[in-house]
């Protein structure tokens, strides 16, 4: 009976602490979050074999508290974000593989091609820029010619057609997308509310 009660207590405590730690799928976890989750699993399994539910609950709380502190420091200081989570790396630019980045990431061309196929991209030449994010997911932007037409763009083209105007090329616009920060190697300051 004590074994069942211990397991129930550990389940409730763990559920509460993991809820405090935040929700992310395994694919979205940072290295620090993955270490905490694996450690919690080990800590929780230990007291069921031995006595020590209180010790396991305290240790789990310390791990979750450390994770929350680390995430707070990452919000406040870019240095901690680079140190703990890392930054995105450009792996493809203008349809060409960045071999230097692949070496640093210890990835093969086949692994990048697999990730592209998983995103529904069949030609590397269609990729304007692709980054490997700290959580392991491939971020990408297609060249203008390879992008699917959106409803917004269609309405814009139709409006300009019927007004007799030439549509403005998207390459004429100043680059203000999510890849600019990575490409230029400049970190944005955190918003004021995070200070």
Supply the CATH class of the largest domain: Alpha Beta
Could you name the CATH topology of the largest domain?
A: CRO Repressor
State the CATH architecture of the largest domain: 2-Layer Sandwich
Structure summary, number of beta strands: 4
Give structural attributes.
CRO Repressor, 2 domains, 4-stranded antiparallel β-sheet, 54% helix
Overview of the molecule:
The protein is α+β, with helices and mostly antiparallel strands and 195 residues long. It has two domains: 2-83, no CATH class; 87-186, 2-Layer Sandwich (CRO Repressor). Helix content is 54%, strand content 9%. The chain has eight helices and four strands; from the N terminus they run H-H-H-H-E-E-H-H-E-E-H-H. It has a four-stranded antiparallel sheet with strand order 2-1-3-4. A hairpin with a 2-residue loop joins strand 1 and strand 2. Helix 1 (2-21) packs parallel to helix 3 (53-76). It is elongated, with a radius of gyration of 23 Å. The termini are far apart.
């Amino acid at each position: 009976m004590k074994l069942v009660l211990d397991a129930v207590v550990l389940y409730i405590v763990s559920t509460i602490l993991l809820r405090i730690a935040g929700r992310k799928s395994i694919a979205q976890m940072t290295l620090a979050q993955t270490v905490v989750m694996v450690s919690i699993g080990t800590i929780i399994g230990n007291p069921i074999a031995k006595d020590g539910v209180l010790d396991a609950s305290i240790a789990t709380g310390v791990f979750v508290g450390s994770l929350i502190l680390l995430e707070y420091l990452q919000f406040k200081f870019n240095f901690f974000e680079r140190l703990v989570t890392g930054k995105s790396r450009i792996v493809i630019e203008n349809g060409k593989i960045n071999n230097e980045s692949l070496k640093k990431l210890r990835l093969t061309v086949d692994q990048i091609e697999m990730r592209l196929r998983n995103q529904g991209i069949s030609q590397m030449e269609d990729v304007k820029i692709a980054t490997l994010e700290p959580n392991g997911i491939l971020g990408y932007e297609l060249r203008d010619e390879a992008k699917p037409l959106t409803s917004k763009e269609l309405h814009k083209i139709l409006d300009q057609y019927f007004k007799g105007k030439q549509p403005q090329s998207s390459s004429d616009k100043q680059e203000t997308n999510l890849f600019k920060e990575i490409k230029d190697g400049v970190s944005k300051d955190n918003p004021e509310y995070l200070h």
